[in-house]
Amino acid sequence: MPQTLLKTPIGPIAIHWDGETLTGVDLDPPAGGADAGFETMPSAIRQQLAAYFQHGSAGFDLPVALVGTEFQQRVWAELRRIPSGETRTYGEIARGLGSAPRAVGQACRANPCPIVVPCHRVVAVNGLGGFSGDTSGRKLEAKRWLLNHEAHKPRPRSE
C-alpha cells in the first residue's frame, strides 16, 4: 500500500492510501519509511490535507477505509460529526452511544486516520485527555496545536 511522509506543523506524518481511499494517518512514522512522494498521493487527499493545515476550518470529505469493531465504527462516525473548532468530552460521546467514556477513549486510540477522523476533538472533562494513546509528549502537543489551529478565526479585513 502506498504511503508518503508529509512534513506538517505537528511534525512528520505518514499518509497511507489505496486508490483514492485514505487508509491511515500515522502520527509517529518510522524514520526512513517508504515514500511514494507527495505528488503521487491522490489529489483529493493532498488538497484536503494542505487546505486543513493552512486553514483549520477546512473539513474533510475523503473516502476512508476504517478497519475496526462495530463499536469503534460507531465512535469514529460520531467523531466525524464534530465540527472543526468544537470539542466533545469522552463522556458526552459515551452517553450518546450508551457506553462508557473509557471505551470511547480506547476507540479514539485505535483510530487509524487521526486528524481526518478528528479524535483530537475529544477531550476529558477536566483537560485535554490523551491523543493516539499518549497523555504527554509530542502527540499531546500535536493535539493542542490542532485544537488551537482549528479555533483560530481569521480577523475581519478592515475596509
Verbal overview:
Helices cover 33% and strands 13% of the residues. The protein is built from five helices and five strands, in the order βββααβααβα. The chain has 159 residues and is α+β, with helices and mostly antiparallel strands. The strands form two sheets. The protein has a three-stranded antiparallel sheet, with no helix packed on it. Mean pLDDT is 89; it is low at 155-159. The protein has helices at residues 43-54, 70-79, 90-97, 101-109, 138-151; strands at residues 3-6, 13-18, 21-26, 88-89, 122-123. It has two domains: 3-54, no CATH class; 70-151, Winged helix-like DNA-binding domain superfamily/Winged helix DNA-binding domain (Arc Repressor Mutant, subunit A, Orthogonal Bundle). Helix 3 crosses helix 4. The longest helix has 14 residues, at 138-151.
Key attributes of the depicted protein:
159 residues; alpha+beta; Arc Repressor Mutant, subunit A; three-stranded antiparallel sheet; two-stranded parallel sheet; 5 helices; 13% strand; disordered C terminus
Secondary structure layout:
Blueprint lengths: L2 E4 L6 E6 L2 E6 L16 H12 L15 H10 L8 E2 H8 L3 H9 L12 E2 L14 H14 L8
Parallel strand pairs: 4-5
Antiparallel strand pairs: 1-2, 2-3
Helix pairs in contact: 3-4
Side by side, the strands of the main sheet go: 1-2-3
**Biggest pleated sheet:** 3 strands, antiparallel
What is the SS-derived class? alpha+beta
- Number of folding domains? 2
Number of helices: 5
How far is the N terminus from the C terminus? 50 Å
Instruction: Output the CATH homologous superfamily of the largest domain.
Output: Winged helix-like DNA-binding domain superfamily/Winged helix DNA-binding domain
Beta-strand content bin = 5-15%
Q: What's the CATH first level of the largest domain?
A: Mainly Alpha
Q: CATH fold name of the largest domain, please? A: Arc Repressor Mutant, subunit A
Percent helix, as a range, is: 25-40%
* Spans of at least 5 consecutive residues with low confidence: 155-159
As a whole number of angstroms, the C-alpha radius of gyration is: 16 Å
